[in-house]
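Onboarding guide, step 5: your first structure request.
Type a short instruction followed by the sequence, for example:

Predict the 3D structure of this protein.
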Amino acid sequence: MVQLLEAALDAKRPGRESPDCGRFTARATFKNEWGTRVTGLHLRMIDDVETLKLLRSRVDSAGGQVAFAKQSGIDRSHLNRVIKGKKAMGSVILTALNLRIFYQPIERARRSDTHLLSQDDVLKLLRSRVKSLGGQVAFSKQMGVERTYLNTVLNGRKGIGPSIMEALNLRIVYAPAERR
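The system replies with structure tokens like these:
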């Protein structure tokens, strides 16, 4: 219901080709900062394209890249590479935009009953899939993920990258971070 209302609102905005082009709501299930499982929140989610548009608008309203970088404590050259699409959105920029990363199953994308996964949830899912396929070697052969990289992710030395997200059929979405 919430998604239908927002889709109707987006359709009335000028310059929007379709109501389904980057903004949507999803039912979030995640653990908050105290470890309590929070379910049933409907968060306004945005994808990579909308996040980049948000960053560009914030940079413009701040008076340019230099001003935004100074206000946010971000390296200006890093900011420039992100805006030009040469670098992925990092945690420092997401913090400046007050956004948080979630992972969403691709087959359920844009559905209002989608459950979002935190990084901890994705690691639990990854561990269970590795175990069900018979170990890290079997998982890496079947899914096309480098075994050493898989091991470093499972041991917490590296973050979840595109190859693992593809193997688990997930995509990254962004939602407003909790205000403190």
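Each response can be followed by summary notes, for example: The longest strand covers residues 37-46.
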